[in-house]
Amino acid sequence: MLQSTETILVIVDVQGKLARIMSQTEQLHQRLQVLAQAMPLFDIPVLWLEQLPDKLGHTSPELATLLQAYTQPIAKQHFSGWQCDSFRQQLQASGRRQVLLAGIETHICVYQTCCDLLNEGLEVHVIADAVDSRHQQNRVLGLQMMQQRGAWLTQTESLLFELQLQASGERFRQLLSLLK
């Protein structure tokens, strides 16, 4: 089970025009916004990646606005976030061993990041309703490839209630309002 003290969220490359042409872009952005607002409720840090932002553009404004309240993007040039020194250092410094993984594209940057994280012995939970690709079949195949490598599949509501543990308290009420 996920433990908030062991968990970190990694958001991969939700940027520029590419983010707008994903097969389920509205759902993707909605789920990522929920996650960006929910992580502070659990004191879960977020690492946020951008692939070549000077060429591909920056993170979608509605997501960036939420994330900038408590974190800054990490620019990368490799498909896998693990290959970026700054990302690797920040992830290792967090001491967190359970990685929630979200973003685009499922079968490329999310997949390669997942593989490297698994190779490092981290427990990876891919948020299936918060990853996407331009073509639905690539999203599905990317999820299958990550699961075959040893990643866990989850989804936004499942993971938030898993972290919450109980149906009471102020945080529970805040989660319910985010999930409406």
Write structural notes for this entry.
The protein has helices at 16-20, 25-38, 53-56, 61-67, 85-94, 106-119, 136-149, 156-164, 170-179; strands spanning 7-12, 46-51, 73-76, 98-104, 123-132, 152-154. It has a six-stranded parallel sheet with strand order 3-2-1-4-5-6. The model has no long low-confidence stretch (mean pLDDT 97). It has a single domain (4-179), classed as Isochorismatase-like (Rossmann fold), CATH 3.40.50.850. Strand 4, helix 6 (106-119) and strand 5 form a beta-alpha-beta unit. The chain has 180 residues and is α/β, with parallel strands linked by helices. It is globular. It is built from nine helices and six strands; from the N terminus they run E-H-H-E-H-H-E-H-E-H-E-H-E-H-H.
Which SSEs are present, and which pair or pack?
Blueprint: E1 7-12, H1 16-20, H2 25-38, E2 46-51, H3 53-56, H4 61-67, E3 73-76, H5 85-94, E4 98-104, H6 106-119, E5 123-132, H7 136-149, E6 152-154, H8 156-164, H9 170-179
Parallel strand pairs: 1-2, 1-4, 2-3, 4-5, 5-6
Q: State the share of residues found in helices, binned by percent.
A: 40-55%
**Oligomer classification:** single chain
Q: Mean pLDDT, rounded to whole units?
A: 97
The 3D shape can be described as globular
Q: What is the CATH T-level topology?
A: Rossmann fold
Radius of gyration: 15 Å
How many domains is the backbone divided into?
A: 1
- Poorly predicted runs: none
Q: What structural class do the secondary elements suggest?
A: alpha/beta
Beginning-to-end CA distance, first to last residue? 24 Å
- The CATH superfamily bears the name Isochorismatase-like
